[in-house]
Amino acid sequence: MTTFAVALAARWPAPARPIVVEADPSGGDIAMRFSLQSSPGLVSLAAAARREADSGLLWRHAQALPGGLPVVAAPPDADRARGALLALAPSSHSHTGVLRNAANAPDTVVVADCGRIDHATAAMGIVRESDVLVLLTRAHADDLAHVARRLPVVGRWTPRPVLLLVGEGYSPTEVGRELGVLPLGRVPHDEHGAAVLRGGRARLRWTRSGPSHSALGKCAHRIATFLAPTSPSLPPRIPVLPPQMPPPVAMRPVDEHAVRGGRTS
Predict the structure, then answer these.
(1) Structural domains of the chain in order of their starting residue, each with its CATH number
(2) Which residues pair with 113 in a beta bridge?
(3) Are 154 and 162 in contact (CB under 8 A)?
(4) Residue 248 in contact with residue 146, Cβ under 8 Å?
């Protein structure tokens, strides 16, 4: 959910410097929603990464949203977005990807919106390098049936998944009892808050009723505070957000110690 990725980064607790990267192989929405320029963005970042991969590269290819949040926007065209992501894959030019390099810098948090992920996604390199994988699903019977079938997969992607429910449906307790995985919480259905984060009259709406005032923004702040590191030795800095997919999650309940554990290899 691109909207929740923006909310999470916008409400990340200080003193961290958050940046959003649209890493959805199906194409991006942020540039169109906020009337951003076509460049800099994901495509220019991929081109520059062929020559360099320092920790400041990501920031040089970002644009600012009305509230000042930096974003690296993907092109709306799926072929161009996928090509850029393949060029940014860690195995393409270096052992460590551009996003990982940026996230390793002090006080930096990279929030990557990776779309609907599976084993063949062009964003898998980002997923595998992430410290925390945040998965969102609706909590209705058909959605949860898909979740159950995908449970064994995610352990091969990341050791630190977090499951969030979206909108109405079964309670986190009921989902946890059924799947054996306890969701971290529920993202509320908040049309007004989502509208602010989707642009429109972006600057005016962000100023008057920005993320800090909405139910969605308050929820994002609670989750960001939970995910934020408590010490320099425990730095989960790349939360990856695939939107509303049947999430494959670990076979054990998600708890605070699991989320705050060390960096992935």
Answers:
(1) 2-259 (3.40.50.300)
(2) 22
(3) no
(4) no
